[in-house]
Amino acid sequence: MTHLSRRSLLAWLGSGAAGLAFGGQARAQISPQSATPLPSFTGPGVNPYWNGVNPFVSYPQKLPLLRMTDRGIQLETPRPYFLTPFTPNAAFYVRYHLDLIPNAVDLSTWRLSLEGNVERPLQLSFDELVKNFKAGSVAAVNQCSGNSRSRFQPRVPGAQWGNGGMGNARWTGVRLRELLASVGIKSGTVQLQFQGLDRGPGPEGKGADAVMKSLDLTDPALDDALVAYLMNDEPLPMLNGFPIRLVVPGKFGVYWIKHLTWIRALTREDTNYWMAAAYRIPDTPDGNTTPAQAASGTLKTVPIGHVRMPVRSFIVVPDGSSKLPSGLPVRVQGIAFSGDGPVMKVEFSEDDGRNWVEATLGADHGPYSFRTWAHTWRPSRARKHVIAVRATDAKGNIQPDAPVWNPGGYLWNRVERQALIVGAAS
Amino acid sequence: MTGSRRLGIILLAAAAALAPGSTARSQATKAPGLVQGGNYDSGNLGMQMQPAPHTDDAGAVYTVGPWPTYTPPLADGEGRELVQSFCGICHSTTYITMQPPLPGATWERLVNKMIGTFGAPIPEPSAQAIIAYLKSHYTPETRKE
N or C: which end of chain B has fewer CB within 10 A? Predict the structure, then answer.
């Protein structure tokens, strides 16, 4: 029987090694491997899984991520990477709209242009940007507007994210307001338009040519905005926007233009496709509407940049992939964030959201960062349990326990649940 | 039951039979509670080679390798080649297979959006054939894979 114990040892070592890779300590529960693969698509019902159902694929400068689409590139971050407040660059999600994505950038010819309605148009090299301006840092969550779109019912077209279309990083770079001051924004400027190096094959002036996003010059979010050349103290991976990207703490990722190369002061509101037609939400409380209202054609919409990311919280472990032996305390862990001020409270429910107790918050990395939380749960007996989590932010916003619906699949922030099986221990 | 799993159980049973004393006592001595062990599966469990370290020169050009692509199998049927060639101008057809099954009217709206707002150069007869193909294979009623 010696070979059996050797195999047990190997299995034990294997599970421990998987835990080390993700959490800094052994966590046998979070191995992403599974003998039976997930289905290749879900629907027309809700995607029941935490992540989307896509396969692991390796990309340059990235760990294997969940590949949703390959051209343009959309990669989802697997659940275990959210155990820590900062998402590793190599695991950070990727979302492009168009397919001409840079593979090589020459910093001897690349310039950041500040142009349009400005006193002194400026072209800055990477070196000038780093050396001539004071560096600032902010910890901030970048979340896709459509994160968790696969939860919508009825389902809506678009990137079918689970919960992994988000990440948190410490961004370092130059304050946008400082750059604007150096060129002198002229009066009459209403918006700033941002565009990066990535392009598409479509005809000029159409949505498949270039992605451009604009924010109102007076938007307070611009006071916290950075032009970032470091992400978690490292250069940006190409797929996250090398050499620089715009960082707009509190706003959805669509405004965080990657490979940022043009900043334009506009004297009229931007009417390009990516502002006038795409990424618009119903002008209703919480961006909520119904399929019937959306189909009526009378729905008033606004750009998603008019709102900040609603408060959210997530259960990362346990993930339900393994049965839990009864009698053991279960350390439930996750993250929470809000685009609208710091998270003040995270609450845990052991009974599907009927009763709530306050969880313990981890270190505070600033109002726009992920904040970790943990709670030790002692399940009463062997059976299926449904645990839940909800967060409250500084503005008093609390996650609703009702789904949102809008035709774009935006703004999902419903209370999160996890079904767990507690098994008999004797 | 896999061959290897069967073999593991036979070995367990054989070991128990050869051991002295009662069956119950020998199992308690050797491996209490063990229901199964040594269950291996044959084949490749998602193995990938590690990427080699980057060996660039010290110049100002920062390069990464090509982006991997994947051509998903689309449902067999009339119009499939039109979908692959026209839709593939701007994006891979993972954009189709990624979607949940969508109502036919939604597919029609999406194809018209590609032409109208994104500028896809698809002639009207081909656009109609593409819409018909998507309705035939990618709605809640028709999607199989």
Answer: N
Going across the sheet that includes A260-266, the strands are: A122-124, A112-116, A260-266, A191-196, A212-216
- What is the pTM assigned to this prediction? 0.89
Residue among B102, B122, B126, B51 nearest A156 (CA):
B102
- Provide the residue range defining the domain that includes B113: 80-137
Q: CATH classification of A312-423 is 1.20.1270.10, yes or no? A: no
Cβ of A58 within 8 Å of Cβ of B48? The answer is yes
Q: CA of A43: which chain B residue's CA is closest?
A: B100
Of residues A47, A70, A108, nearest to B60 (C-beta): A108
Measured between its terminal Cα atoms, the distance across chain A in Å is 25
User: How is residue A212 written in tokens?
Assistant: 């451009």
Q: Is B94 left (phi over 0), alpha (psi -120 to 50) or beta?
A: alpha
CATH superfamily of the A112-278 domain: Oxidoreductase, molybdopterin-binding domain (3.90.420.10)
Tell me phi and psi for residue A207, to 5 degrees. -65, -25
- A368 to chain B, closest Cα gap in Å: 30
pLDDT in tens, A185-212: 999 999 999 999 999 999 999 999 999 9
CATH number at residue B85: 1.10.760.10
The reported pLDDT for the residue numbered A139 is: 98
Whether A201 sits inside 8 A of B90 (CB atoms) is yes
Does a structural domain hold residue B66?
Answer: no
Report yes or no on B75 lying in a domain: no
* pLDDT tens string A268-315: 999 999 999 999 999 999 999 999 999 998 999 999 999 999 999 999
A333-392 residues touching B, CB cutoff 8 A: none
What count of other Cβ atoms lies within 10 Å of the Cβ of residue A83? 17
Please indicate if any CB of chain A lies within 8 Å of the CB of B112: no
Is residue A26's pLDDT more than 80? no
B34 contacts in chain A (CB < 8 Å): 4
In which band, very low, low, confident or very high, does the pLDDT at B27 lie, cut at 50, 70 and 90? low
- Whether the CB of B134 is below 8 Å from some CB of chain A: the reply is no
Place of tokens 């209403």: A190
Total tally of structural domains belonging to chain B: 2
Residue at B67 is within a domain = no
CB contact under 8 A, A60 and B51: yes
- Domain spans, chain A: 112-278, 312-423
Cα(A83)–Cα(A335) distance, integer angstroms: 7
